[in-house]
Amino acid sequence: MLATSALMTGCSTLGAGSAPGDRTNTPSTAPSTTVGPKAEFARPDHKLLSGRRATLTAGDLTVTTLLADRSMPGLTFALDVVRGQILRHHAWAGGGELTMEPTLLASSSKAVAVALNVEGKGGKRTSVVYYDPQSNESFASPALISPQKWAEFTAAVGAKAGEEKAAALKALASPTWPMGQGPALAFSQEGNLVIQFQGGSQPNVLLTGKEAGPFLTDFGRRAKAAAQYPTGAEAAQTFAPASPDLVARPKGKQKDPRPQLALGTDCTVKKCVALTFDDGPVPETQEVLDALNKARVPATFFMLGPSIDAYPEMVTKASANGMEIASHNLKHNTMSTAGNEALAHQISTNSKNLEKLAGTAPLFLRPPYGDRSKRVDAEIGRNSMAVALWSVDTLDWKFKTTPSILSYVGQQTTNGAVVLMHDIHATSRAAVPAVIAKLKSDGYTMTTLAEMAPSDYRFGAPFCSSPALPHSCVR
């Protein structure tokens, strides 16, 4: 049985080894490989960003997750996306020892940067999540650099890389890790831009603030200031549209030369669908995990109170495999008929139980039977979760055959669809490989719910398909 972690609550303590009283903007401990200014990321006081941490311990994994303040939903969902990507790629590569620790790199009401620092058999790797508190959008490292200046930027980095020029240019052409092997970009406390290559494959490269300045987007300049002169981060009351430099150019326009800005699958350019499973876990949920891992696709599991109590180890296994853990409430009841106290207790208790076992808080709750009301939605929102419904009902609980399930998937699935299945039924579990094959053959990429539209979910807001797309099926 996998060991599970104890939950740590309170103010976020970003960065291993930091202690109360540490001076603001202490440099990270990454080794410098340059003469002169150190090629190290800034590390502002962790207290500038409100939140808490949870830790998952499962076999050789020790994974610490930052649960950001609920006023910044886009940051919370983005961190969940990257965490899941890292754990899935780790599992698909055969697993083994891995530690993950979040570190604050920049903080202000105009820009936030959080690094997920990973150490395992592939060496030390870092993924930086950039967040704009004014637009609620999140981005990968290339968002710091203007698309018009990307070629000049890569040439400057190549020149600094010396004998490692070819390797540096190859890495810069790749999506940021873990989606590819691209480097992490962030600023030092002196305002220099540090390019940190993955796995210790080559020395870090440093561009001075003066050298990097002409290449930066407006957001890049804000991120630089937030690393040099960090302040408390507060999100806007009303989110504004993101800067044009931070949005991939639409079809028909000049291609953006930067690797993708999305932190996970870019569902603005790919057809995405989310597979979801209700009512578990059960011991046989392992069959679903095996099928998902074999096909290298993720899913979201909506877990029910009695099943969680009966099989807690399956919650931990699913989370350790990078699957998204969500809530199906403490009881399988009609939530709209529950009294206020009972409703609050059911929602919060199931969420807390999942957090203890999964090492991360659920960001979605699916009401049993889809039964909800404005009062139910509001209580779910107070517990920092979005209200997840579905757009494709496979009726797998009723028509228990693979052909029937495939028929509903084929007829109802469109871009941004949310597919409802149940991992408690043997016939549903047996159909999973065929469902995955069908969706792939139809050109769909499977994602978690969070990955489908990380900047578009709102706590307490219902959805039944991707909220980034104009269609809606919410009543």
Report on the structure:
By secondary structure, the chain is an alpha/beta fold. Helix content is 29%, strand content 19%. The chain contains 13 helices and 18 strands. Strand 7 and strand 8 form a beta hairpin. Helix 6 packs parallel to helix 12 and helix 11 packs across helix 12.
Task: Please write out the topology.
Blueprint: E1 51-58, E2 61-68, H1 73-92, E3 98-107, E4 112-120, E5 123-132, E6 137-139, H2 150-161, H3 165-172, E7 184-187, E8 193-196, E9 205-207, H4 209-212, H5 218-228, E10 272-278, H6 285-295, E11 300-303, H7 305-310, H8 312-320, E12 324-327, H9 340-358, E13 364-365, H10 374-382, E14 386-388, E15 392-393, H11 402-412, E16 417-422, H12 426-441, E17 445-447, H13 449-452, E18 462-463
Parallel strand pairs: 2-3, 10-11, 10-16, 10-17, 11-12, 13-14, 14-18, 15-16
Antiparallel strand pairs: 1-2, 3-4, 4-5, 5-6, 7-8, 8-9
Strand neighbour order, sheet with most strands = 1-2-3-4-5-6
Shape: globular
- Structural class designation: alpha/beta
Cα distance, first to last residue? Answer: 42 Å
Helix segment count? 13
Q: Mean pLDDT, nearest integer?
A: 91
Radius of gyration: 22 Å
Taking the sheet with the most strands, its summary is:
6 strands, mixed
Percent range for β-strand residues:
15-25%
Number of strands: 18
Report the helical percentage: 25-40%
